[in-house]
Each structure stands twice: as C-alpha cells, then as structure tokens.
C-alpha cells in the first residue's frame, strides 16, 4: 500500500517536473527574444515580460473554477495541458524568421505577423500553465489523509524541488515524460467537483455585505463577524469555511511585493548580465543562462533547509513558524536587490561615457598616412596621428563641421590629402552615425577569423572579441603586402570587465528567500484551507504573484529612474517596509485546523461528522490489507507444499 502511494505521487511530481521545465525554459529567453528578435527596447521588453507572468498567475482563478465546478482537478490538468502544448508550439513557430524573410537577409520582413503569433502563443501558455497551477499542488495534497501531515510537508518540499529541477534537463525528454501523469490515472484519489464553489463564495460574501448594509442602523445588534450577516440565507458550514479563507487572503495583501522583486531575475537581472563578462575559462556562460543558478541552488537549499536548518532551529527551542519563515524570506529578497544594486554600481563604472541630452560627441578617425590637424572651431583643434582616433565632447552640436544638425554621435573618417582640415573641406569626409549604446546581447566573447581578398591577393586576420565590446578596423591599401599585419584596431568600447560571477551572491540571497517564502507559503496555504476550497486558496496565493508582476510593469513604464541601481534600492526599501507590516499581521494571526472547525460546525448543525466516514473508510482499507496478507500466506503455503 505504501509503495502504491509512492508510485502515484511519483507520477504527479514528474509531471510537475516536466511542465515547469517547459515553462521556465521558455521564460528564461523570453525577455531577450523581445529585445533582440522583436527589437523592443529594455522597458517595453520588461513590461511585456511581466505582463505575461502576471497573466500566468491570474489564470489560476479560472483553473480553480473549472476544477471545482465542472471537470475536477484531474481532467482540468489534462485538458489545459493540451492548450499549454499548443501555445508552446505557436510560440516556437513565431521565432522562425524565415516565414516572412523573403529576401533571406536574416531579418523578418513582417514583424506584425511574428508579434501577433508570439502574443497568441503566450496567451495560450498563460491559460494552460495558470489553469493547472492551483490544481496540481492541491491534487497532490488530496492523496494524503489529515493525519499524514509530516508526509504532506515532505511532498510539498519534493514538489518544489521538481519545479526547479525541471529547468535543468533537456527538452528532448519532456514529450516522453509528460505522459507519465496520465499513466497513474487509475491510482489517484480523485475528488469529484463539488459545484461552483468560487461562485458560491462570491454570492455568499455579496449577500453578507448587502445584508449588513441594510441593517446598518444601531438598532440592530452587532454580530461577531461581518460574514455572520449571511446566516439568514446560507449554510453555517459554508460561512465558516469562507471565514477561514478570508482570514488567509487578508494575510496575502502584502505578499505581492516579494514577487515584484523575485521575478525580476528573469528580466532586469538578465539585462544586467548582458553588460557583464561570462567567460569562466572552461566555458562561456550567456546572459540568459545565468538564471540556471536559481534552480541549481533550489535543489541544494531545499533539502538542507528541510532536513537540517529548520529542525536545528526547532531543537534550539525557537518558534520558527511558517509566517516567520516567510518574513525572513522577504528580508533575504530585499538583501538580494541591495547586492544587485552594488553590482550595478560596479558595472556603471566600466560603461563608456556617452554624451548627455545637452551634449554632442565627435569621433574622428584618421586613415591618412600622416598626422592631421582637425579644426573644430577657431579655438579648438584635434591633432590626430596616422590611423589614430580622437574623441571630442562639446556642449553644442557639430553642425558647422558635419553639416548634420542635431546628430549627437558621428564618426568622420578623414580621407583627404590635407594636413589641416576645416569645415570647408567636407567633401573629403566620410561620415556616419556612431554607436549610441553598449552592445547588449553580450554574445561576442568569441574569436573571429577574417579572410580579405582582392583578385588573387588575400590574407587572413584573426581577433578575439570581448563581451560587449565594439571595434573599428582600419585596413590600409598595403594590407596584402604585409599579410594583414598593417590592420589597425580601434577599440570603440572596452569589453565588459565585471564578471557574471558577481551575480551569484544576489542569486543565492533571492533563492534562500524563495525557499523560506514560497515553499513555506505553498504549505501554509494548503494547511489553512477548508477541504473544498484548497484550489481557491491556491489560486489566491498565485494571484499575489500576478499583482507583483503588475507592480514591476507599472514601475518600468512610469518610474523611469535615471540609474538602474537606484531602482534596485527602491524595490529593496519597499520590500523591507512591507515585510515589517507583514510581520505585524503575522503576529496577530492564529493558526487554525480547518477540519476541526468544520467538525465543530457540523456537530452544532447535527450533521454526521466526516471523521465517521474516514473511520469507516480506514476500516475497509484494513480489512482489504488483512485479506491481502491472508492471500499472501496461502500462496506461500502452496509454494512450500509444491517445494516439498
């Protein structure tokens, strides 16, 4: 019997393992897909990213309604997984630029088509992943009886481990393992839908508010709880269950701020990594791959916390309750953003000095074989060596020199035959707009080999490019006579010098916070929910994530802080303030046993308690086990007889 339970629990966690890899694997590259394929700017890419994540955590409400009122948890998981898979296929197709790239230049000709297809795919994915979110955790919890609280806590820890382990394995095995959940169908404990519980809850709350408003006069006696004003129409058991849910939902109010910080590791932190070096010597780590540090740390920290840290704290006599763990988790997340701010300050020191909105910058590259004197104004001159570069920043535009008013960055390649160049010699200038920002993809830490050909003459040139660097190569006419040795390299922007390893502390802090906050919150939500409202409360828990991402979206669009490190510190400060508020709310919270409260209400109403049903069920299971044991003894006796 125990092995049977382990078997079907295995099916559930493996399904979650595969689903989470599918989701996180796509989400890891999503912001860079927006930034470099659809060519959106940082703020728009961040906003759409968090809008998608918010939608993923709003749709659990729909999933809870479908599961509780129509299909049940098992069928809801199956059907919405199909919607989910269609969304992933649609999203994958949207990334194929050849569909609209008629001239095969590597750039889509119709961005509207790709944007529309990717948005459709993301909506389907949000419906699929969000719809099954409240069902899988609650469905797993349904497999345990109320006296198996220790096993239930272990399940949630393993469940969360599988969420993060899923993002570390290859997509090749995902289609094979996804059918594992269906394979365990005959073993699961499947609770039937109990009607549209969400709608019943809303109607009951609405009636209580309306009835209280009707009897707002002081002539009517006060009632213990405002939900008691629904007693005239609704069952006391339902009212008691709603009271329990509302008590927990009130506690959820400050929680979105944690997710506001946490989910930025897939947007702002990834963009931060694009300005850093990912050269670890033995391997090159790309910016979006840095996110794998989180699941790796989860796999390490969850068992350490669950089996070592938390029991050790308990043995020390400290009451480290679930709500206290969540508070500490929020503080760890705040520290992670302080760490991210410190890293950003170091990055800013290495970034090139681009002209401000009130400045202009002139770069002059001399490709002539002699030193040239460039006249900027009667009092300003640049003396440039042969194949040299000079930068000049001024508070005015260079319209007198470039004949291009209001162009902030221009590069002038001097190809004339004069020692002194003034604004009258513009016919000898080759001018083009210079780069205005540091390369953001961070994927250029590679060696390139170039072969230059002219008729039968050729030579090979090799150069290793650094992360985030920008170069100009000056090639003289004598390049073939000296085997490319005369090529002059101009480093327009230095390579990224701040290493991605500096992000590891912030990932460690945010992951520690996640283990204390998210894993504990998942267990807390399930333990404090009435039996028929566990999906509802799970959906409420996931909605805090949606609200958190909406906050990021608002800040990204409206905040516009001049420095990224200042934005990190703003979020950290807000979370510290919210964690203080949450700790005060947690101090006054009283933990409940939903089954005990329901049994008490049933007893007051003269209903048959559920415990009697459970005892009957347990007796039937014991009788079945005894019969199985007797059957085994008979088989053993028969085998012994045959052996003789």
Give the spatial strand order of the biggest sheet: 4-1-5-7
> Could you describe the largest sheet, including whether it forms a barrel?
4 strands, mixed
Low-confidence stretches: 170-178, 397-411, 413-431, 442-446, 611-622, 627-644
Could you tell me the strand content as a percent range?
5-15%
Question: Can you give the helix content as a percent range?
Answer: 55-70%
Let me know the average pLDDT.
77
Structure description:
This protein has helices at residues 2-36, 42-56, 60-71, 73-94, 111-141, 149-165, 174-177, 180-183, 197-214, 236-251, 256-262, 268-273, 293-315, 322-350, 399-402, 504-527, 534-559, 564-587, 594-605, 610-643; strands at 360-366, 372-377, 380-384, 389-394, 409-414, 420-421, 429-433, 447-454, 457-464, 470-474, 488-493. The protein is of the alpha+beta class. A 4-stranded mixed beta sheet has the order 4-1-5-7, with no helix packed on it. Helix 11 packs antiparallel against helix 18, helix 14 packs antiparallel against helix 16 (504-527) and helix 14 (322-350) packs antiparallel against helix 18 (564-587). 36% of the residues are buried. It is found in: Apical cell membrane; Membrane.
Summarize it.
The protein has about 650 residues and is of the alpha+beta class. It has helices at about 1-35, 40-55, 60-70, 75-95, 110-140, 150-165, 175, 180-185, 195-215, 235-250, 255-260, 270-275, 295-315, 320-350, 400, 505-525, 535-560, 565-585, 595-605, 610-644; strands spanning about 360-365, 370-375, 380-385, 390-395, 410-415, 420, 430-435, 445-455, 455-465, 470-475, 490-495.
């Amino acid at each position: 019997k125990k092995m049977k339970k382990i078997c079907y629990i295995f099916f559930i966690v493996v399904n979650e393992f595969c689903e989470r890899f599918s989701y996180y694997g796509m989400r890891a590259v999503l912001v860079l897909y927006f930034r470099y394929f659809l060519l959106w700017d940082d703020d728009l890419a961040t906003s759409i990213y968090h809008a998608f994540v918010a939608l993923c955590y709003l749709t659990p409400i729909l999933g809870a309604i479908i599961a509780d009122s129509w299909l049940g948890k098992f069928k809801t998981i199956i059907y919405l997984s199909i919607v989910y898979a269609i969304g992933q296929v649609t999203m994958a197709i949207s990334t194929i630029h050849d569909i609209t790239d008629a001239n095969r230049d590597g750039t889509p000709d119709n961005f509207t088509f790709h944007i529309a297809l990717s948005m459709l795919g993301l909506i389907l994915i949000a419906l699929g992943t969000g719809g099954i979110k409240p069902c899988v955790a609650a469905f797993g919890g349904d497999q345990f009886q109320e006296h198996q609280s220790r096993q239930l806590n272990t399940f949630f820890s393993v469940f969360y481990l599988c969420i993060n382990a899923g993002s570390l394995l290859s997509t090749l095995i995902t289609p094979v393992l996804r059918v594992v959940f269906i394979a365990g169908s005959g073993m699961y404990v499947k609770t039937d839908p109990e009607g549209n519980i969400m709608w019943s809850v809303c109607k009951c709350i609405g009636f209580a508010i309306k009835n209280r408003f009707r009897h707002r006069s002081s002539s009517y006696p006060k009632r213990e709880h405002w939900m008691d004003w629904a007693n005239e129409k609704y069952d006391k058991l339902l009212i008691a269950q709603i009271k329990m849910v509302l008590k927990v939902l009130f506690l959820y109010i400050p929680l979105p701020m944690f997710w506001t910080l946490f989910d930025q590791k897939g947007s702002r932190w990834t963009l931060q990594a694009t300005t850093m070096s990912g050269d670890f010597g033995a391997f090159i780590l790309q910016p979006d791959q840095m996110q794998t540090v989180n699941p790796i740390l989860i796999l390490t920290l969850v068992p350490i916390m669950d089996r070592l840290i938390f029991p050790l704290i308990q043995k020390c006599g400290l009451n480290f309750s679930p709500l206290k763990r969540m508070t500490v988790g929020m503080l760890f997340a705040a520290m992670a953003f302080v760490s991210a701010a410190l890293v950003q300050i170091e990055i800013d020191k290495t970034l090139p000095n681009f002209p401000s909105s009130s400045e202009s910058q002139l770069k002059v590259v001399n490709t002539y074989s002699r030193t040239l004197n460039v006249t900027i104004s009667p009092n300003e001159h640049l003396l440039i060596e042969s194949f040299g570069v000079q930068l000049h920043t001024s508070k005015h535009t260079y319209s007198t020199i470039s004949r291009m008013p209001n162009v902030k960055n221009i590069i002038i390649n001097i190809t004339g035959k004069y020692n002194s160049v003034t604004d009258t010699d513009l016919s000898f200038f080759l001018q083009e707009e210079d780069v205005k920002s540091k390369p953001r993809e961070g994927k250029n830490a590679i060696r390139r080999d170039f072969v230059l050909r002219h008729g039968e003459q050729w030579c090979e040139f090799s150069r290793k490019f650094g992360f985030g660097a920008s170069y100009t190569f000056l090639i003289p006419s004598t390049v073939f006579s000296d085997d490319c040795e005369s090529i002059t390299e101009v480093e327009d922007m230095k390579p990224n010098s701040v290493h991605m390893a500096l992000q590891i502390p912030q990932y460690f802090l945010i992951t520690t916070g996640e283990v204390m906050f998210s894993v504990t919150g998942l267990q807390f939500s399930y333990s404090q929910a009435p039996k028929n409202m566990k999906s509802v409360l799970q959906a409420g828990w996931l909605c805090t994530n949606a609200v958190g991402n909406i906050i990021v979206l608002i800040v990204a669009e409206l905040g516009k802080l001049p420095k990224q490190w200042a934005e990190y510190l703003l979020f950290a400060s807000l979370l510290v303030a919210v964690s203080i508020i949450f700790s005060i709310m947690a101090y006054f919270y009283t933990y409940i046993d939903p089954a005990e409260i329901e049994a008490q209400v049933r007893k007051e109403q003269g209903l048959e308690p559920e415990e009697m049903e459970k005892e009957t069920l347990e007796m039937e299971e014991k009788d079945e086990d005894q019969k199985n044991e007797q059957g085994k003894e008979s088989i053993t006796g028969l085998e012994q007889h045959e052996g003789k």
